[in-house]
Design a protein that fits this description.
heterodimer, A: 340 residues, alpha/beta, Rossmann fold, 7-stranded mixed sheet, 14 strands, 36% helix, B: 324 residues, two-stranded antiparallel ribbon, 11 helices, 9 strands, binds thiamine diphosphate, binds magnesium ion
Chain lengths: 340, 324
Amino acid sequence: MTATETPTRRITTAKAMAEAIGLEMRADPDVFVMGEDVGAYGGIFGSTTDLFAEFGADRVIDTPISETGFIGAGIGAAVEGLRPVVELMFVDFYGVCMDQISNHMAKIHYESGGAVKVPMVLMAATGAGYSDAAQHSQCLWGTFAHLPGMKVVVPSNPYDAKGLMASAIRDDNPVIFLFHKGAQGLVWMEKNPRSIAHVPEEAFTVPIGEAAIAREGSDVTIVTLSLSVQHSLDVAEELEGEGISVEIVDLRSLVPLDRQTVLDSVAKTGKLLVVDEDYKSFGLTGEIAAIVAETDPTMLKKPVKRLAVPDVPIPYARSLEYGILPTRERIAAAVKDLMA
Amino acid sequence: MNPMNRLELYTEMVRIRQYESRILQEYHGDKAPAWDIGAGLIPGEMHLSAGQEPAAVGVCAHLKKGDAITAPHRPHHFALAHGVDMNAMTAEIYGRTTGLCKGKGGHMHLFDPENHFSCSGIIAQGYPVACGQALAMKRRGTDNVAIAVAGEGAANQGAFHESLNLAAVWNLPVVFVIEDNDWAISVPRSDSTATTSNADRAAGYGIPGVRVENNDVEAVFEAAGAAVDRARAGEGPSLIEVHTLRLWGHFEGDAQAYRTDLETVDERDPIPRYAQALLASGDLVEEQVQQIAEAADAEVDAAIQFSLNSPIPAAEDALLHVFA
Ligand SMILES: Cc1ncc(C[n+]2csc(CCOP(=O)(O)OP(=O)(O)O)c2C)c(N)n1
Ligand SMILES: [Mg+2]
């Protein structure tokens, strides 16, 4: 859809997130933000840029480094009917607060037989590529998607980030909103130009649970998400020159997962590459392959290919890190393998 | 308690400062483009410890072989003061095969088993590990101690409180060291912490706690001496909070727009101040000031040369070391 719009106002993914939060805050006094350095700093990855200046310390709350405390407090506030947007600075820090997330935020609605709602957004930065090493580079969306009870949203571009954030805040369920640092359009990190794009100024939503065809093609389907969508688009453009037509399915959310869009694309191309920056085993790539296998394995003209982090922590040195990430080169090689 | 040697305290602080100053320079030196955190010979986040030397030097002056340290994301000063090899540490920061962790760890994840030194980028999570090291020392009947270090921001994390209680109830040889540099990234202590002194929190767990004001290396030395002696004697854990100074940004590239205390930072720098005091007391003479800095520079220079001459790890080595 972005292709047909006139690119008038171009903003970063980070700004798009902040804008969506700001619009929801103006519309609904129950929406508020908390997290580490979300105030005057505007979020380490820009997700709350300028909100503090507009809404002040009452509604944009800098927290102590007490994730169990403030994520739990977000749950409590949500249970009482507020709509907190809580930031966990890096998703890697889930370890210090996972009980609140998985045993409380995600289970309360079910445990209560539907009596209690938890309308809260938990956003966190994900991703590698700039040598932040094993404790600050993970994606982990597969982990959250594996645990029942939370929606998991993973945008790849500014437009979707804004629309999905609005949907997440309005949703009556807990939504984990995972943004990739490398797709935020930050001034201090290498970025794909796709991280800065036209986004309408007014409020709008992108529904949670609908994948997008980021690019139409006929030879190979790439199913992917987040920054890997940007890489895959680059690769598809490059391979077009070699006569290979790549279709890209941007999942946009893992829970709910838009199985039909995946299946329709695979039915069309007969070849499937799943690209994921999360760990390979027990994760998204296996899930997508299983969906195809369960539905109709004869759709596939070639065995499924999976490109993901090969079950090692993210190493520090650039040579090591780029040894395991799903880079453009590896995506291109996998597509060519499928075409061979 | 070890006798205090002022010149040694000063020399070690200068050694650390020269190291951090040079890393600062090298970190930014070849970044192209300059804004790209992932570029350059030293990529990634970089949390330097300039201004916080008194905490590390005052504490580590009491440590001996077998004593352990867990440090946080800002680890260099404690690593160096504890005797971690400068070459191997620097090579790790440069991501080389000769680094402490063969390039896998980086500056927030330095592991030196020989010196029982480690650090972690997850706030406060070194505290429980130090308790476990202390438990091992106790079970083995040594008189070694474990030092758990983190910032004042970390003292609001559950792991900190659990560790204090655990160490107290098990009477472990641990010294908890809190570096209060007033800031946790952009959040001032007053906005995040309900007490003005973490010594009060120590009292809540029934262990001795002291707060050292004014970033004073000699006062740290005295407090740490008492705490380490107590731990070695089997009398249990203690807590020391050092009111220190973050001379530079939280991480390199931090513009510090939030910082309200920048004007007075230079005058609060503990090293020139200590130099003045030692010159006045005669523990240091003028020509030594430069000699000490030059000796440190030479050591740092050699460590950087060593790193630059060391191999970059092969991509496939990323697959090694998941399991023993
Ligand atoms: C569990 C966890 N939460 C948040 C962070 C992000 N973070 C890194 S350093 C830091 C501030 C730490 O402040 P402090 O403990 O005072 O140490 P200082 O940086 O001042 O030395 C934060 C919030 C983290 N690394 N781990
Ligand atoms: Mg601090």
